[in-house]
Amino acid sequence: MSADAEQVPKGIEVIKWTNGDKSKSIRYRVRVKRLKKGIDYNETFESLPNAIEARKAVLNGDTPEKRPVAKNLTQHELGQLMLSKYGDDQGVKLLTDTPFSFYAKKYFEGKIEGKDLDKPTGKFNEDSTKYRLKSILDTPIEYKRNADSKVDGIWETLLVSTKTTLGNIPAKFLDHVAINSYIQTALKKKAKSTVKRELGVISAIVNYTMHVAPDFYKKHWLINPVKLADKSRLTGHNAPLDRRISPEQEEAVINALANYSNQEVNQIFILSLLTGARRSEILFLEWSQIKDSHIYLGVTKSGKPRKLLLRDEAKEALALIQKRENSPRLFTYSLSGFAGIWQKLKKEYGFTEVKFHDCRREFIARFLELMGNKSVIAIANMTGQTDLRHLEKTIEALEQPDLSTEKGLQKHVGHSSLNMLRHYASGLLNQKK
């Protein structure tokens, strides 16, 4: 019977070719791919019956003699195999149930460690990130080991939660439900704005995994779990503060710091109030940066240089600072050193309600009072703010409302909707009629 007359079943490919001596040959290819079952089989046979038998054996899960079925072990099966051979070894656990902390470490090494050390703030930022990462990874969470489960519906809600920390959770189980648990726990001790920043770090770690473990990323995190998490509890995290440093608070801080042995702390505080410069910008300020009525800042948080306008009060404060021999800097403190002493003095002298960053907000508020035209651009140039939208909100929060306008009255009474204000106003007007 010719090959053409033979009935070739589905799933078997007929391969024909002409040899050099003009004779013809024929073989039968069996190709079976069942990736979910870990089967990838590809073989050719001289006779059709052998090919049919081999294909049947593969589909039944049996191994034909011609070639063993190449079965890819799942991560769970690989883990069981390694555990049976090597026992309860930490290295085996790392390979088979890789914790999220492993990818966090890769992120730190690849994106943070050793970067920007040429900048004055480089080491401080690296240490701060390391401390923040530890705090994030040590946060207790709960998760459900249902990644490979076939349960759904009400049964899924009955799965028992596993308690661990964010760092110890097997990365494959880090989903939006685990992130929700993180948010709930973190908010018990941290501000909304802090938790929001930490979620940004977690999201960055997940995204970085795409570069170090692309197959794992595609399988488990094609959509970032932070993006899918319920962040409704963090509403208002970025609300601008209207808190100001009162004249009484300012006087109390200056008088208290005047009693401290190192007058640099007082000088740094005053200079921040009078210039709106960031703490790091003042701490590493050099005499060569001060020119007439400006301070030129070459290294800033935003990465863009800018000029600080020096008013008379700021010039007077600078004149009181003594130059040190063979030192280009105005002050000797490091970022971590100043942060530590500031917190210590706040507790010792009782001005715990004053945050150093309040100096920038207070500078903006006083600048607004001096300006007839409240230019957002001018204030942004002075303070180095790059987020103009947030700066506008800060300005609105600091401004005293004009009660003769609808917008001012809306702000004063706290209505988020102008329509709601008009609703109340119309009701009052109707009462007067």
TrEMBL record:
Keywords carried by this UniProt record: DNA integration, DNA recombination
The keyword Magnesium belongs to this UniProt entry's keyword annotation: no
Domain Tyr recombinase: 240-414
Highest taxon above the source species: Bacteria
GO terms under biological process: DNA integration; DNA recombination
Entries under InterPro entries matching the protein: DNA_brk_join_enz, Integrase-like_cat_sf, Integrase_catalytic, Tyrosine_recombinase_XerCD
PROSITE patterns in the record: TYR_RECOMBINASE (PS51898)
GO MF annotations in UniProt: DNA binding
Protein name, as recorded: Phage integrase family protein
Organism: Paraburkholderia eburnea
